[in-house]
Amino acid sequence: MKASGAQSVLDLGCGEGKLLRLLLSERQFTKIVGLDVSHRVLEFAADNLNYERLPTMQKERIKLWHGSLMYRDSRLSGFDAAAVVEVIEHLDPPRLAAFERVLFEFARPATVVLTTPNCEYNVKWESLPAGKFRHRDHRFEWARSEFQSWANNTAARFGYTVRFQPVGPEDDAVGPPTQMAVFEIEEKT
Ligand code: SAH
């Protein structure tokens, strides 16, 4: 997010606000919004950020919004970058298409940093029974080839480039625990 040069940033599916705290500590980011569909986790995020006690200037810099990535939301337009960290695997596969349009067609930030588990890595966890997901709320977990074909396809449809980066210790055979795609909008000429 820093390398993108972004000033205004979205954390979509922000959960309890771990990334929001990091974003807040970087002066580069002048407008930070965390969005989540769950009121409950937004309350946790506000607690974790000590929101009520933040100085007025900081409160103006960061906002927590209730909303769903399934529906077009005009508030999400005009941001430089968006993070979508460990969120897509919580969406029902038939509804991914709605999410793709909400983010890449309507919100359309110049940069999108998106992560999801790499299910090939699951064999490395002895405590995780074979074929099980990492979290009971996951609707799917993708292998590297599945994620890359989804991301390449999505980027091509919406006019973005995409590159992939591993997150966590990479294993020769099964890759990293988490896979990340960085989408960048193609320059209009
Ligand atoms: N990004 C956070 C949380 C990941 S857990 C982190 O990395 O810690 C996934 C989050 O996505 C949950 O907080 C869940 O409430 C949120 N979420 C699930 N479906 C969503 C939707 N349709 N719109 C917005 N947020 C959603």
List key phrases describing it.
189 residues; alpha/beta; Rossmann fold; 5 helices; 7 strands; 23% strand; globular; binds S-adenosyl-L-homocysteine
Portion in helices: 25-40%
Which descriptor suits the 3D outline? globular
CATH superfamily: Vaccinia Virus protein VP39
Q: Which class do the helix and strand fractions yield?
A: alpha/beta
Bound molecules: S-adenosyl-L-homocysteine
Strand fraction: 15-25%
Query: What is the level 1 CATH name?
Result: Alpha Beta
Average pLDDT: 96
Notes on the structure:
The protein is α/β, with parallel strands linked by helices and 189 residues long. The chain has a single domain (2-185), classed as Vaccinia Virus protein VP39 (Rossmann fold). The chain is 26% helix and 23% strand. It is built from five helices and seven strands; from the N terminus they run βαβααββαβαββ. It has helices at residues 18-24, 39-48, 56-61, 96-107, 144-158, and strands at 8-12, 31-36, 62-66, 81-85, 111-117, 160-167, 178-185. It has a seven-stranded mixed β-sheet, sandwiched between helices. 32% of the residues are buried. Bound molecules: S-adenosyl-L-homocysteine. Residues 13-15, 18, 36-38, 41, 68-70, 85-87, 90-91 line the site of S-adenosyl-L-homocysteine.
